[in-house]
Amino acid sequence: MKILIGGLAVLLLAIGFFLFALPRVAIVNERTGANGSQASQTVPQNALSVPEASIPSSSSNTSASHSGNGSADIENQAPLGAPPEVVKAIYLTGWSAGSESKLASSIDLIQKRGLNAVVIDVKDYSGYVSYAMDVPEVKAAGAENEVRILKPNTVIKKLHDKNIYVIARVTVFQDPILAKAHPEWALKNKTSGKLWLDNHGLAWLDPAGSQTWDYVISIAKDALSRGFDEINFDYVRFASDGSLSSISYPFWDQKTPRHAVIKIFFGYLREHLPGAKISADLFGLATIDTWDDLGIGQVIEDAYQYFDYVSPMVYPSHYAAGTLGYKNPAQYPYEIIKYSMEHALSRLNTYENATSSASFSRPKLRPWLQAFDLGAVYDSAMIDAQIKAVNDVLQNASASDPSTTLGASKYGGWLLWDPKNNYSNYRG
What we know:
Blueprint: H1 2-21, E1 25-32, E2 38-44, E3 87-92, H2 94-98, H3 100-112, E4 117-123, H4 136-141, H5 152-161, E5 165-171, H6 176-181, E6 188-189, H7 210-226, E7 230-234, E8 247-248, H8 258-272, E9 278-283, H9 300-306, E10 309-313, H10 333-354, E11 364-365, E12 368-370, H11 380-400, E13 413-417
Parallel strand pairs: 3-4, 3-13, 4-5, 5-7, 7-9, 9-10, 10-11, 12-13
Antiparallel strand pairs: 1-2, 6-8
């Protein structure tokens, strides 16, 4: 009997250790597949969370007047005359773009490494806009209280003078500033009635609220009027972490599928920005998820319909252990990126070949690539491996059979993401 009890105790301890040692993952959804089998997607907890930049310890930019709306700046700029067909870009925060020394070093890196574009935060995850705008709603919300770029037109001119394509990044539904200013548009906690907060303590807007849509579009129009060449929309989704069951939605009826809500928003953007170049950021898993919307409303075909560029965030570190048989996918950047982009391209080809209308813009794929250390050290070789994967899939596909996609190349380039804006590890 003692032997039996002792053996049971050992077994329980072993099971406990095994469960503790498992990778920290979450099941996004499980659904019966077309063949009747259970189709499931196991997603790491960080798969739906991209590392964001923190506020720098020295933020002298904020000492300037917030009410000048660029009065000390030069005139608005025209878009770049000959934008690149294939974009090769780095990401900069508003803080970096607003720093003369950081901007200068970034321009130098872009030129030395053979790049041709930059993505700059115009509104980031904090809800603050990077510069003082001619938008009354932005000022009223208090979104100009942490200005990072004092002279946005001057910044754009410096970049355009070097023939650098300038993309304005605008976060959408994660916005603590707008949520505080308009709590009637925001997610609420069912129990307390206060603003609902995610695991990072940040508030969100209801994706079904058209007031938020108009607010974001007004910011996009201001950026375009100043000479930004393109608007890149991020956080175009429902909230993904925190106590989701405790959310109260002021607009969403919780019957309309999430992806239908996001698709309507996409169409609204295109309708109100008809002549603009616009792009959307999606989670990398959206390239391979064909049975659901990741629980956040993202279906890649919906983005194909309305955007000029679709940018899945195919960071290898954000794929579950076991993907393609790899215990740590972050150590296999070429294989993971190739796998995702092949699926994204196949779905784009299928979508376009099934769509007879010639009225929508023919989208291009332009993924975000990992330039930050997570799961592995991302040195120049790791970054190069990702770029090679993108090139191998998109360039070879368009060259081998261009007729299958109505004769249009799907290669839009790539974007490098590092929240610290340190790209010295990329050698080009």
